Amino acid sequence: MFIGHFSLALAAKKVAPKTSLGTLILSVVFVDAIWPIFLFLGWEHARIVPGITAMVPMDLYDYPISHSLIGGAGWALLFGGVYYALTRYSRGAWVLAAGVLSHWFLDFVTHRPDMPIGFAADAPKYGLGLWNSIPATMAVEIPMFCLGIWIYLKATRAKDAIGKWALVGFLGLLVVIYFASVFGPPPPNESALATFGLFTLPLYAWPYWIDRHRK
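The structure corresponding to this sequence follows.
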C-alpha cells in the first residue's frame, strides 16, 4: 500500500491538530523510510520477481526488523516516545505511535503472505494478497486517499497561496508516483530499489512546509 498510508496521516490531522502534517506522514511511512537503509546495510533483503503479484514485482522475503509486527510495535513506541519527550503532547504521541503500527495492518491487507510477526526466520507470515489484483487494490486505496484528503481539508485551511498550492503539488506528486509504480517498469535489482527508496526520503520534508502555511 502506498497512498493508503498517506490517507491515514491526512485524516489524523483532525485528531492531533497540534502535530505537524510532516510528522504524521513520517509516522505512517516510517518503516518504509528505514527499510532502504537496512537494504543497503545488508540487514534485510528483497528481490525483484516480475509477476509475483500483479501490483508490485517484489519478493519481500527478509525484512523483519522494519516490517514485522513486533518490530513495528517497537518502532511505534520509540517514535511516539521521542515525540512526547520533545513536545509533551500526549495525544500527538499516541496518534503517531498508532500511525507507525498501522503500517503493518495496512500492508497485511495488500501484501501476499510475507508480513512477519516476529524476527525469527521461521516466524509466521501473513497477508491477504490484495496486490494480486490491480483493480481491487485501486478500488481500496484511491477512495481511502480521497477520504483522507477530504478530512484534512475539513480540519485545516490555507493561510496563504503556499498553503493551498504546495498541498496541491504534494498530493499530485503522490498520485504520479503511485501510477508510475503500478504501470512503469520494475526496478532492475535490489540495489536500484534501495537507491530509489533513499532518493524519496526528502519528499517527507515537503509536508512540514505545507503545515506552516495552513491552520
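Residues 65 and 71 are 6 Å apart (CA to CA).
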